[in-house]
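Open question from group meeting: does this chain pack into something compact, or does most of it stay loose? Before anyone orders reagents, we agreed to write out a predicted structure and look at it together. Recording both the input and the output here so the notebook holds the full record.
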Amino acid sequence: MSVKGRFGLAVTGGAGAVLVLVSGCSGSDDGKGELASGRESTVTITPGNGAASVKPDGPIEVRASDGTLENVTVQGSKGATVTGRLSADRKQWRSDRTLVPGATYTVTAQGKSDGKQISATSRFTTLKPSKTLSVVDVTPNLKGEKVGVGMPIILRFNRAVTDKAAVERALKVTPDKPVEGAWRWVGSDQVIYRTKTYWQPHQKIRFQAALAGVNAGGGAYGTKDVDETITIGAKQITTGSISGHHMTVRRDGRKLRTIPFSAGNGQTREFTTTSGVHLLMGKENPVTMVSPGRKPGDPGYYKTVVNYGVRFSNSGEYTHSMPSTVGVQGSANVSHGCLNLSPSNAKWYYDIMQRGDVLKLTGSDREVEPDNGWSYWQMPWSKWKKGSALS
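Structure tokens returned:
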């Protein structure tokens, strides 16, 4: 289509939407005009007007061959806002993010040439892929929750990610109080963010995943962005000695309480409480404890319901109430691997805990594995970083 006027304005489709401004003082019947300066100013928009099945990870580009650009706007039928950058000479504009798949976009460019206003428009649609990638879970994710200073950010996707680097580049973590951090892939569909040192307490962290239009490989494209705010609460650190049968809880450096406990009896590996840096993962009241790998009638089988359980590993370790062992709490280890507390201490710890609080235990010959629960702090920082697709 061509639209002509006093200044010879023409907009065409094809590979790019093109605007031509011919400088002149009078028009002619063919609409080309009489050239006073012999110059034409052309603005080209790519993708062009009417383009279909445009790849979402391709850029939008606007170029002025003569004159300058003043404003470029992009309006999409759904999803993320598209912004871009104008070159220093104001002759080129380029979008700075990917596009939403299966969407319609309208690009409008405005500028000036020889003191005259110029404008061009392109309307196109993006590819609707057969496979899509989306985030199905972000942890932490509880509304109004405050988490501890050791808290990781855990993402799980709806499918395996082929191009991990492309997806990781779309992830951004912005704390109020900056600290070095890195992503580590622990599977084809899961990636975890951990900091080099603990988060500073009492702050907010913004997590953004600009996934809409990202080519995740294997023909899959991201469908929508994710934007979450995570709140870090008080710095609650618990340190305990398994051989010493006590743990001390501190909040923001101030001692709150020292608690006697009875830990695992150590008769087998599974009955040995793990040493190392754990994170509190959640709480249950009541919680049913069942011996792993055993059924009723087997030696060592047990099934016990306890109150005020706070989990700190995936191998069945909790702090919890155990009235029957109060007499030896603080002096002997008789449990199946958990930290047995008195009912009052168990409830107190249950009430103050935050997911992501640090529990550092020493004194046993069984070290907690970095992938046992959220024990990611067991892995040296240098090794953690190597799990990034961008390392």
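Observations to bring back to the group:
Residues 185 and 238 are 28 Å apart (CA to CA).
The longest helix spans residues 343-352.
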